[in-house]
Amino acid sequence: SPDQHDITSFFSQR
Amino acid sequence: MFEARLVQGSLLKKVLESIKDLVTDANFDCSNNGFALQAMDSSHVSLVALLLRSDGFEHYRCDRNMTMGMNLSNMSKMLKCAGNEDIITMKADDTGDVVTFMFESPDQDKISDFELKLMDIDSEHLGIPDTEYAATVKMPSSEFMRICRDLSSIGDTVTISVSKDGVKFSTTGDIGQANITCRQNTSVDKEEQTIIELQEPVTLTFALRYLNSFTKATPLAPTVQLQMSKELPVVVQYLIADMGYVRYYLAPKIED
């Protein structure tokens, strides 16, 4: 939902 | 080949129950370190990380690192066929496209094997840094489950505020609002304690739907640990005695 952060935005891609 | 024998097979059944509602398909990573998983829910709002360390198994052999992709609902169907007292062994060949679950009854008078087809799953692996959190709350896992369940009958989100006085869970809905405060309490048995370690007060808001899903891990551990920092995902951790952990990460709601 638009009021919810995406969890991937907090962690680095490996 | 990969082979892992767990005398307390019910643990694996509980682990699967703790993740299968959140994640549909997932890659299990087998290495000398243990049996691990990192997966996101389909909306990419939460992430679950599981580790069952190799030294927690009665027998563990992993000749080379392997990734086993499984549909968790199908894996759960098979593990539900194991008795709660059964010993469970997982086996897979290096090149195989199946994993075998073997169940032995405690008296060794019934042996079953279930073969689950593996699948190729395209999944992102995220690097999760070790972070110092502003607030850490340890509390009885059953209490946390109760609070999440109770508040979700009132509202869709919960605001968690940690201060030196305690941890406050608040929600608002069409019918009204609710606040539940748990104060630090170290005078009771260890498993009943609420302990707050605070660098600075922190307040974050989360979707209750996900927190309720995390509480499926309650049978794995008597206590749960919440770690929070401003504008970061909360970490909800259940330690699995002598074996490892299930950790959930949930992104906060975006403040208005």
Outline the biggest β-sheet of chain A.
none
Structural class of chain A: mainly beta
- Stretches of chain A where pLDDT falls below 50 for ≥5 residues? none
| Largest two-chain interface | A-B, 14 and 21 residues
- Average predicted confidence as pLDDT of chain B: 96
List the total number of helices of chain A. 0
Distance between the termini of chain B: 52 Å
End-to-end distance of chain A, in Å? 25 Å
Count all strands of chain A and give the number: 1
> What's the number of helices of chain B?
4
Q: Give the number of DSSP strands of chain B.
A: 19
Poorly predicted sequence stretches spanning 5 or more consecutive residues of chain B: none
Strand order of the largest sheet of chain B: 6-2-3-4-19-18-17-11-15
Helix content of chain A: under 10%
Largest beta-sheet details of chain B: 9 strands, antiparallel
| Share of helical residues of chain B | 10-25%
Please state roughly what percent of the residues of chain B sit in beta strands, choosing from under 5%, 5-15%, 15-25%, 25-35%, 35-45% or over 45%: over 45%
